[in-house]
Each structure stands twice: as C-alpha cells, then as structure tokens.
Amino acid sequence: MTTEMTAERTDRPKSEKPDRARVVRLAWLIVAMSLIAACASKGPASTLDCEPAYLDAKALYDDTRYQDAIAAFEAFVAVNPGSACADDARYYIARSYFKMKDYATARDLFSAFIEQDAQSNLVDYAQYYLARCEYELGDYDVAIGLFDTFIDLYPQSSMLDNAHYFLGRCYYKTGKYQQAIDQFALVIAVLPQSGYRDAALLWSGRSEYELGKADTLQPSLHYTSAENYFETMFTDHPGCSYEDNGRYYHGLCAYRRGDYAVAVERFDYLRSNFPNSVYMDNAWYYLARSLYQAGDYPAALVEFEDFLATFDSGTYLDNATFFAGRCRYEMAQTAPDPAPDLQAAITWFTTVKADFAGSNWADNAYYYEIRCYIDLGDCSTAATLITRFSADIPASGLLVNARNYYQANCP
After folding, report:
1. DSSP classification of residue 47
2. Cα(253)–Cα(98) distance, rounded to whole angstroms?
3. How far apart (Å, rounded) are the C-alpha atoms in residues 208 and 188?
4. Model pTM?
5. What is the CA radius of gyration of the chain?
6. For 116, which of 42, 138, 253, 389 is 20 to 30 Å away at the CA?
7. Where are the beta strands (DSSP E) in 277-389?
8. Would you put residue 315 in left (φ > 0), alpha (ψ -120 to 50) or beta?
9. What residues contact residue 280 under an 8 Å CB cut-off, 6+ apart?
C-alpha cells in the first residue's frame, strides 16, 4: 500500500451534525480492528505494484482533479475488487471528497473505510480524517472523542502533531481554553518540527487572551502569557501566514493591559506592514481607541475620521462614529470656545442614532448629545431628547444619568 504524507491546514467549520451513536460504535470498532491489524497487517506495498488504472487515478488526484480521480478510483475498484491497491483507492476517494470540502460525504466514506479496511496501512490516516471531517462540520465534541481515539491508538503516526493541533482547536472552539493550551503545548515543545507549530503558538496566545478577558483580576497576567506566545511565533516563524493575526492580538493584549502607547505602536505596525490583512479595520479602530484612552483626543479624532473614510462596512463603524463624537466632546472641555466642538460632537452622536439602528452605542449617543445641548445652554432641546431617550431605550442605565445632569445644570 502507499503511505499518505500530507495534511491540509484548512479551518472552515460547517454546521451539519453526524450520527453520534454511529460515531461511538465506530470508536469501539476501531479498537477491535486495530488489534486485528497489529496481528495480521498486510504490510505496505509500493505503488509500483499497483495496476496502471490505479496509477492513472492517483495521477489525477495528485493533479488536484478530484472529481475525475473519484470516477477513476471507483472504476478501478469495480473492475479490481481484489487488488492489493483497492483499499488505497477507497481511501483516496474519501480524501478527494475531503479535498473538495464535501466533508459529510468524506466522513461517511472514511467511516466505511475504517470498518471495511481495518488492516490497511492507511487506517490511521482515515481515523485522523474522520475526526477532521467532524471538526470541519462543526461538531467539535464528537471530533474531540475521535481525535482522542486516534492519539491513543496511533502514538507513532506521522499525523500525531496534526491531531494534537486540531484537538486543541476543538477545545478552543468549545471555550475550553486551558485544555486547548495543553494540546498546543505538545505541538510546540514535544513535536517542534511540526508544520503546525506556528499555528499552535498563535492559538496558544489566542487562548491565553480569552482566559485574560474572563479573569476577575484585571489587568490579567494571561495577557502577558499571550504576548510571550505571539512573540515566540514572530521570532521563530517570521513571515508565517498567521503573523497579522498574531500582531492584532499582540496589540489587543497591550490595550487590555492599559499600555496604550505600546498598543498604538503594535496596531500601527500591523497597519503599515499588512495592508491586506483581514484585521486591518480592527487594528485601525483599536489604534484610535488606544489614542482616545491615552487622552490624545485630537490624534484619536483624526484616526477615527480616517477609519470611517476608509471602511464602509465592518463591526466597528458605529463604535468609531460614537468615539469621534466623544473626542470632540472631550476637546470641548478644554477649548477656549467649546461651542464648535460641542456642535460637531452632536453631529456625530446624531449619526450613531440615525445610521446604526440597534447600535449598542445608541444610549451612549443619546446621553452625550443631551450633555452637549446642556453645556451649550439649550435646556429645551435637552429636555426633548430626554423624553425621546426614555421612549426609545427605557431600560438604559444612562437615562438616570441624563436626568441627573439636566437637573443639576438646567434651572
């Protein structure tokens, strides 16, 4: 038989759910079949021993012509059911579906392969890819069980680092961040030559970051641990495909720790060096937020305005609009003539309410718009806005603050 030596780094979970009872039954069957295989393995055979029709099908697979490969492998098995290479063909049919991201079909075929071809030298790969299919389909709990089974049965498999990595990803996906770190640690330290080491460092850092967010003691030491993982990735794997991801969270760690000057440097580094990163808008927004948190309101305002001029969609548009208004409001507090800044702030706050229906910042926008009008001496408009605020967002805790500010400053 041939030996499979490659593994994808794809990570696109889907939503289809497997038959859990079947998977549990299959896990027990794998144990039994592996014992049989240990006693009566057919042993690997060179592809030179395979029929030309098999070799032609494998060439199609290697050329990424997966649909054609499936047809050729199926034809080969139909004509040569007793061939020493028939199990390889069945395996590569399943792998072809996996390559085409038809994970449900691939899952069923890997499951059937494990049952039918338990003595194949590719059974460990089939077990690994069965678990991967469950991961890609988004059934992380089932995938955890299957990866655990693989690790227990095949501790010498060349896919062991892959299994530990994706087991860690399953734990991350299910919010079990410490268990995720434990799995990633095996890839980082025990299997350091793994092609997943850079990714394991990234997701160890991401896991520590999530633990930091949940920590009751802030700023959490988990942020420092996360930074150490990211920095190791930058040093040991310069230019890796995950660097922009790591740079973004590296900046967020500094932001969460309250080290806003360092956060600005890190977010600006990502913006300058990774212009096509999917994290560009996030990094730009948090660069502006870092300047705001540091009290540099004019500089923050420039960044928020440039952010809004650059991006017309994304998660942080309403946030940026609100904080642009907050920058003008804070600038008004020290301006010789606060009126221009207060008027500009009102425009920003009105835009939040008008352009972002359901924004989490709507009550904040109402509150600071009311403050602006009171600071301008326009108590009548402020009173009207308090009435609208009460009608639109009656449960907001800022409604009481708005009324108190009105009572303290309006006759």
Report:
1. G
2. 36
3. 15
4. 0.85
5. 29
6. 138
7. none
8. alpha
9. 270, 271, 274
User: 216 burial class (0-12, 13-18, 19+ CB within 10 angstroms)?
Assistant: exposed
H or E segment at 208?
A: helix 197-214
Cα–Cα distance for residue pair 188/192, rounded to 1 Å: 5
Q: Is 303-411 in the same CATH topology as 1-174?
A: yes
Under a CB-based contact definition with an 8 Å cutoff, are residues 30 and 127 in contact? yes
Both structure tokens of 73 = 């492998």
Residue spans of the domains in the chain: they are 1-174, 183-294, 303-411
> Do 53 and 74 contact (CB within 8 A), yes or no?
no
Phi-psi region of 259 (alpha: psi -120 to 50; beta: other; left: phi over 0): beta
The distance from CA 237 to its chain's CA centroid, rounded to whole angstroms, is: 19
Taken in order 268, 274, 275, 278, the sign of the CA dihedral is negative
Positive/negative CA dihedral, 287, 289, 294, 297? positive
Alpha carbon distances (Å) from 104 to 19, 67, 121: 11, 16, 23
Instruction: Write down the CATH superfamily of domain 1-174.
Output: Tetratricopeptide repeat domain (1.25.40.10)
What are the pLDDT tens digits along the chain (411 aa)? 454 544 444 443 333 333 444 444 444 444 444 443 343 333 334 455 899 999 999 999 999 999 999 999 999 999 999 999 999 999 999 999 999 999 999 999 999 999 999 999 999 999 999 999 999 999 999 999 999 999 999 999 999 999 999 999 999 999 999 999 999 999 999 888 899 999 999 999 999 999 999 999 999 999 999 999 999 999 999 999 999 999 999 999 999 999 999 999 999 999 999 999 999 999 999 999 999 999 999 999 999 999 999 999 999 999 999 999 999 999 999 999 999 999 999 999 999 999 999 999 999 999 999 999 999 999 999 999 999 999 999 999 999 999 999 999 998
Cα distance between residue 364 and residue 366, in whole Å: 5
Angle (deg, nearest 10), helices 280-293 and 260-273? 150
What is the CATH number that goes with domain 183-294?
1.25.40.10
CA–CA dist 36, 355 (Å, integer): 66
CA distance 133 to 325: 48
Residues in the chain: 411
Query: Given 1.25.40.10, 3.40.50.720, 3.30.70.100, 3.90.1310.10, which CATH number is that of 303-411?
Result: 1.25.40.10
